[in-house]
Amino acid sequence: MLISLKTVKGFLIAFLLYTFFLKPLINQSTEKVPLEGVYATEIFVLNNDTLPLNPMNSARWNKMYIDRDDGINVVTNENQNSFYYSRIDSLQKTIALYQNHYSTNFFAIFTYLLKKDTLFLDGFIQSDSVKIIFSRKTKKGYPLLNRNFHWINEYPYNR
Question: β-strands 94-98, 108-115: how paired?
Answer without folding.
Answer: antiparallel
